[in-house]
Amino acid sequence: MAQHEMTRHETRECAFYILFEMQFQNDTAEELFQVAEEADLLPITDAVKEMVNGVVAHEAELKLSLLIVPRESSTGFQKSTSAFYDWHCMKFAMTHRCR
After folding, report:
1. Closest CA to 92 of 2, 5, 35, 20
2. pLDDT of residue 69
3. Residue 40 — φ and ψ, nearest 5°?
4. By 3-state DSSP, what share of the chain in percent is helix, strand and coil, each rounded to 5?
5. Model confidence band, residue 3 (pLDDT cutoffs 50, 70, 90)
6. What is the spatial distance between Cα 99 and Cα 96, in angstroms, rounded to a whole number?
7. How many CB atoms lie within 10 A of CB 35?
8. pTM over 0.85
9. What H or E segment, with its residue span, contains residue 19?
10. At a CB cut-off of 8 Å and minimum separation 6, what does 9 contact?
11. Which residues does 68 contact at the CB level (< 8 Å), separation at least 6?
12. Residues 57, 10: Cα–Cα separation, whole Å
């Protein structure tokens, strides 16, 4: 896909797809960027690459931060119990916060 100006939401969504796929493949981020571009699946912009590479670079810190996140909010509302979903949400939240 030709590079175009993407919204922040679109950038995070594309990065999420790449990071999600990395959980099931032995491919590097660069290999998945190439596959996505060649198959015209996702618009892989510099912002998407920066976000994915930032998450990969800080993976250990992000995993550690999951250990201290409370499972209930202050109102007592139970948050998602899916550790896999929480892991990806936390990766994006931390990467976005660090920008």
Report:
1. 20
2. 53
3. 55, 40
4. 60, 0, 35
5. low
6. 5
7. 16
8. no
9. helix 8-22
10. none
11. none
12. 21
